[in-house]
Design goal:
single chain, Rossmann fold, seven-stranded parallel sheet, six-stranded parallel sheet, alpha/beta, transferase, 16 helices
Length: 425
Amino acid sequence: MPKKTLIITYYWPPAGGPGVQRWLKFVKYLPEFNVDPIVYIPENPNYPLLDESLLEDVSKSATIIKHPIKEPYKLAGIFSKKASKTISKGIIPEQKKQSFIEKLMLFVRGNFFIPDARKGWVKPSVKFLSEYISKENIETVITTGPPHSMHLIGLQLKAKLGVKWLADFRDPWTTIGYHKQLKLTRSSANKHKALEHEVLNFADDIIVTSFTTKTEFEAITSNPIHVITNGYDYEPLKDFTMDSKFTLAHIGSLLSKRNPEVLWRVLRDLRLESDGFAKDFQLNLIGAVSVDVLRTMNKYGLDNCIKNIGYVSHSKAVKHQKQSQLLLLIEIDSEETKCIIPGKLFEYMVSNRPIIALGPKNSDVETIIKETNTGHYFYYNSYSSLKSVILECYKAFKNNELQVHAIGIQKYSRRALTESLSKLI
């Protein structure tokens, strides 16, 4: 008999963005491993991005239950709709360029909504789910964050009902990049730490998406920690042709600090040094892009080779991945981001296009790209090697020889990863 498992998540179709894909795919494959998923989501969420096409991917066998939520971002939009929407997407302007409203909203978000703006959903959810769990004889509850307030629902349900509880961290809590930008008081920072400690030490099992996060959490708890990365779902696509230009495509959000000037300088110099490169090259930006990043690109004279496409549906993003000549992955150059493995990395890997990645030294992304032979990884000071590799790729493009020979990526398939999850359940 299938084991009923309750999954508590904020992000669910028609929400767009990377936070949706992980559990959408787990729910799709869990029934194959004798698990009956029941997904609990907000009835009236305020999603910063929408992708209606993802509704087609929701498993027909999954049970979806909903409960109302009060969304503070809707109220914040009264004061500044633009600032509210931008911050809710995770795009935080540099401190010196923040308006008074943006500074105020960040302070309120960091100090009055701990751990996050969805904290008001915890109490009504615990009441609603306590009755539902007892009625349906559910033994296992899974919470996934961010938002990390989802874990507080699991924390209270375990204390109240004694259910088995798995806490899934798609991103770290107090060490995630934007945490320092929330203008936290000392007491607020301590409260975040205390809640993080309580969740990590009370959950039966902890799931993380990177080995660096596992190491970080091992310093806080002795509870079992399991690494189940994000992954890819093979999506055959026949109706596309390769870009005729030498395209370098970045898919996803480009935050203010994902701004490697070394890359923009390399591209500027290659265009200045070769008329052929200048004629053939195009930088495609698919997703939300910070104004700060665009300004820096323009400073290096790239404005006339940029195609700023904006946010597109997941299906269109997959098409861009497959038809681009090169795929660009950028992470903030900091100690805190070594643990971040963007979900798009795995979709990049299965797209059969070479990856150009930039980020901090010794990151999990660097390890995966090298192990799978899916591209090249550079640091923010790697001018010569970066320039050399892009030039080599351009020459291969001109000779119709630009390709990638991936190794061992099958373990990152969504189905294989779901099998690992099912063993914990």
